[in-house]
């Protein structure tokens, strides 16, 4: 492999499922918006999408979803009356490359029309990391041959297209549209949430003879360039787009117009060109390179000796950055980022458990914002707890902007096609302790005492109060139980004393009480105010202490084997040999009800607990549970979260080869569409788990209050692992050699 920063395809595959998968893979973005890798000229049945951070509109059942914005990338090329598109004419050569080091998507096409015109098209696209409101396409057309070497009439049309939706559901309506002397603009609004979006466009060429005209439209406004090219000649055009929403301020259109004119004006002064011919690409691309370089200086993970692993982890680290804002704490990272329609842009515990550690260790300012998102939604979490008859704060399994539960009540099963009830919003409780765990880990790593004083302790205590009221006391045994839940293994419902749920609840209670003790010692006035605000009298605090000391955890004291939930060991095992060569999950094969009768696990459940709290268990405990649960977990089709997470625990136990195998399943899950659902968007949680697998797994990084240690476990061929992290504000460079 020549370049360990690039994702490339060397030929065009017209299979529509492959096209949709590659649209996801070749997404460009900057945290404010992401744009799927559709072709500039369009393609029949494409799945074009530009998703904006935190911009939602209403949908039935699932309440709301990220609203697919009017498409900004469209370019229509016509030569001598024949339209250039990849499903027309004759495709002679094709390459497409995403350079994750710079966020640049490039495509080269050699194409011949039915009349014998041979042309080359080179397209370059990026969403600016230096200016989050800016997207640019540079488009070059070269006429290589024409019949009798005659000049060719070339027409280029750059447009906005409002006729795009989330599949068949349209979310935007045009409010107004028009143009100035050199800019075209479109103002649209989401139909229900009334978010206004302003998009401005300039479309300039280096061809002084080209004629430009504006075509106003409420559906597809455009700027058209008409010229004539002789064989051997090239026309270069730049499409520059600026986007602002009403979430950015009161006058998004005027703000966008001013911003765009400033971009063009500065370049025009520097080059003395007219506004109709000024080019900004080179300057903006230089800024793009600088912004990404700054990111990679902090975030890069170097793997020497394994090119596939190197490209895989860099791609996943790229995805983590483009799907989150650097400064906006009103929204978080969705399960599919901003790259597709899967899960509708809803936030799960995927963010805190799988993605947040990357930001906590590498980009703590972003981690802080992601946790502030949860803090700001405490009122809604308290309301959810109250509505269910409990105290404190119970976070929803799925959430968007207002913190209310957005888990749909039913869905169509993606494998069986049957309509099934979704109980997660009612019974999958461990997200509450996942958020608390992330707050505690953030504090331990960053030492951000200000965050804890102002936000963190309150969140920890509020979530602990929920567990305190949710646990039921068994008076005879003097133990507390948590009944009727769904653990991380979502194939088993209505279970009692799920080990993961109970252990993480106990951890939530422990850390909350420890944080309160810290606050009382360091900021007693703040602590007193918080205790009064939460009505934490001595009896309540004593009860919380009692619950955390006596919460039942199903574990054999001699063997150290945890029972995933009470009664799990009484279930029969599933004959996995019968299903060799399968292409579906065990749930998809057996059905929602039947799968619950067997000892088969969707994703890491007990083993996730041992990984999250890895410093609290000895190697023997980890080993006996690995030996039991790893073989009965569906690593291929259960959950994308499973493989890379298992690599951490497996590495520690010396199962390096198996861990590497798991890691690569995670690293390549989208690049090779291993689960068949990449068209729905990237597996963002898996991206975070891949980073954790290298740093916590193969490098064996452990950070404590005393400092840090590493304990490398080397996959075959790996010769070096290097990365950076921050501990309490200090940058630490790790460079391990075999």
TrEMBL record:
Key words, A-Z: Glycosyltransferase, Transferase
Domain Glycoside hydrolase family 65 N-terminal: 9-247
Domain Glycoside hydrolase family 65 central catalytic, chain residue ranges per copy: 314-692
Single GO biological process annotation from the record: carbohydrate metabolic process
SUPFAM superfamilies: Galactose mutarotase-like (SSF74650), Six-hairpin glycosidases (SSF48208)
Upper taxonomic lineage: Bacteria, Bacillati, Chloroflexota, Ktedonobacteria, Ktedonobacterales
Record-annotated active site: 490 (proton donor)
Endpoints of the signal sequence: none
UniProt family annotation: Belongs to the glycosyl hydrolase 65 family.
Domain of life: Bacteria
Source organism per UniProt: Dictyobacter arantiisoli
Molecular-function GO terms, alphabetical: carbohydrate binding; glycosyltransferase activity; hydrolase activity, hydrolyzing O-glycosyl compounds
Protein name listed in UniProt: Kojibiose phosphorylase
